[in-house]
Write a structure and sequence with these properties.
Layout lengths: L1 E2 L18 H4 L5 E5 L5 E5 L23 H12 L1 H13 L5 H26 L5 H9 L5 H38 L7 H19 L3 H32 L7 H6 L9 H16 L5 H4 L23 H27 L4 H5 L7 H45 L5 H7 L10 H14 L6 H27 L15 H23 L14 H18 L14 H8 L7 E4 L3
Antiparallel strand pairs: 1-4, 2-3, 3-4
Length: about 575
């Protein structure tokens, strides 16, 4: 074993930084290990002062750092894109009655928010596009590191791809709804929907390959656009409802109305259809984590609590603020819609429009205003898809970099375009996977299952590192600048794991009791089917290539990128 001494000729083992807080002191014993491209094992004591730089995890900085914490919030906020998302889930929410507003509030603030906080800790400890599976690999027992990380990779990829499909599928549905408003005789067939879907997803991928500077401006525009859309509906819908003489529903109806349009029991139907819409809508909040390699870091203000300091982790700030804002604003929007929808739930649920929320707008605002709002909703849905396909492509790039795919394909996709500084090949790989996944549109229940697949795969992926953090790695897990303390972190992760287990069960249920093959929930078939095929491929040959995180830094590149002042200790072990 040999060591590299610091510039003052002191042993690096004695050159450990003086830390400033209790959480900082806990970092002294945290070692980040990876094998360099030269084949040496590098152990690094993590440095709080340097925001756990990407190079300390063994990865070369290839993507351009252009995103501030506001931009990362914009990505997550755009992915959730409240009004377009609510339009997509309004049928399911209303099938449980207007009281589903309580389900939205409960799910967003008591379920999704703890998951977001727990995810923020993981993203802060591993500030890379591969944070979720990198944390699973690090926390797992030595014997199961590669296997657990591989499972997380596959599940997260399934989730993100299904999310892209569901968003662009909704966008296609909104566009066709506009066509139906203009021409009531227009037939919105599945073939036409898939054709529009192909068009918008290819256009979205093209926009996503633009340079970081242009992409950040798109995110900023998306924030204002979504806020404008919400304000427009908050103002126009009540005014239109009043002008049309439609009676407003009172608080008793909004918070107490319960409906059942399924053959489940009323209580069972409410649990299935009042809790899931928020989980489907407030999804994609992991997008800032996947964009962490493009985040602009600034020194942390240690006098502020981590929840009040966006510089503690720009990605964490984006995750948490997007969940809270969408949770509260989405609740208010549902209240507005149910107050203005009229007293007959049947009239809305039995609408002939592709998206039943169109009927609410038609009743209150008339054809011209409805067409204008639905057109804007379609644009918002497109922005939503662009943001998610960008985050998904970063995940695709990261798993290719670590050879989760076979080497030839992985090395081809893990290339950053020199001109735009974006993973263009990974973007179009994501596009191709989404086009294939989107064929579920031709089966009505299969298309509906896209939302469930996105949630199920995502939560199954997150549970693995979070459960390991609570058990095997409870005293050894990595800590980043965003950390809620020993007790706070344990409680948050425990709630997050419990909620995710519950929601996975919920989204696996079919929409009707005792379904036939047309009514079944294809989530379990797609999610576990793809996972099973991936594990077979892993057992047969992929285990030879995927060995967990794969550094693309040589020894010299590591020292040049990180610098002696950025690390506390480096030890090289010769490859055996």
């Amino acid at each position: 074993m040999s060591s590299i001494e610091s510039s003052d000729n002191k042993s690096p083992a004695k050159a450990i930084t003086s830390y400033k807080s209790k959480e900082d002191n806990e970092l002294v014993n945290q070692i980040s290990s990876f094998k360099s491209a030269d084949g040496h094992k590098i152990d690094v004591v993590r440095s709080m002062d340097n925001q756990l730089a990407l190079e300390q995890l063994g990865y070369k900085q290839e993507l351009e750092r252009k995103y501030t914490y506001i931009d990362l919030f914009g990505i997550a906020f755009s992915v959730m894109s409240l009004l377009p998302s609510i339009c997509a889930v309004f049928y399911q929410s209303t099938s449980a009655g207007a009281s589903s507003t309580w389900g939205w509030l409960f799910t967003s603030l008591l379920g999704i928010l703890p998951v977001g906080l727990a995810l923020s800790e993981l993203g802060s400890a591993f500030p890379s596009a591969s944070a979720v599976y990198l944390s699973a690999w690090t926390f797992a027992p030595e014997k199961y590191k590669d296997f657990s990380a591989y499972c997380v990779c596959i599940l997260d990829s399934i989730s993100l791809t299904a999310g892209v499909c569901s968003i662009f599928s909704s966008c296609a549905g909104q566009i066709l709804s506009c066509a139906q408003v203009s021409n009531p005789d227009f037939d919105a067939s599945n073939g036409k929907k898939y054709g529009v879907y192909v068009g918008v997803i290819v256009l979205g991928a093209a926009v996503g390959t633009l340079s970081g500077g242009i992409a950040t401006k798109i995110q900023q525009i998306s924030i204002f656009f979504n806020c404008f859309l919400l304000v427009l509906v908050f103002i126009a819908l009540p005014i239109g409802t009043s002008n049309k003489g439609i009676p407003f529903n009172n608080g008793k109806f909004i918070f107490g109305n319960v409906e059942n349009y399924t053959n489940w029991s009323t209580g069972g139907n409410w649990i299935l259809n009042a809790l899931a819409p928020a989980a489907w809508t407030i999804a994609g909040f992991d997008s800032p984590i996947h964009m962490a390699e493009e985040a602009i870091y600034k020194p942390r203000n240690l006098s502020k609590h981590v929840l009040l300091d966006p510089h503690a982790s720009p990605a964490a700030f984006g995750v948490i603020l997007s969940i809270v804002s969408c949770g509260v604003l989405g609740w208010c929007m549902l209240i507005c819609l149910y107050a203005c929808m009229g007293p007959s739930v049947d009239a809305i649920m039995n609408s002939s429009y592709s998206s039943i929320i169109t009927q609410v707008f038609m009743n209150s605002l008339g054809k011209r205003w409805t067409l204008a709002i639905m057109g804007l909703v379609s644009v918002g849905c497109f922005f939503m898809g662009v943001s998610l396909i960008m985050a998904t492509s970063r995940n695709f790039y990261a798993i290719s970099r670590d050879r989760v795919l076979p080497p030839a394909a992985a090395d081809w996709f893990a290339v950053v375009d020199k001109k735009t500084k974006t993973p263009v090949r990974a973007m179009y790989g994501t596009c191709l996977a989404s086009l294939l996944f989107g064929l579920l549109i031709f089966q009505e229940q299969g298309a509906a299952s896209l939302f469930s697949i996105a949630v199920c795969g995502f939560y199954m992926a997150l549970i693995i590192p979070m459960a390991l953090k609570l058990t095997y790695a409870r005293t050894t897990h990595a800590i980043g600048p965003f950390y809620l303390g020993k007790n706070g972190s344990f409680i948050i992760n425990l709630v997050a794991v419990g909620y995710q287990l519950f929601m996975i069960i919920i989204v696996l249920f079919p929409s009707v009791n005792k379904p036939n093959k047309q009514e079944m929930n294809y989530c379990i078939v797609c999610t576990f089917g793809i996972l099973a095929l991936s594990l077979i491929s892993y057992a047969l040959f992929q285990h030879k290539y995927f060995k967990g995180p794969r550094s693309n830094l040589t020894d010299n590149e590591y020292l040049e990128a990180v610098g002696e002042n950025h690390i506390d200790e480096i030890i090289y072990d010769e490859k055996k």
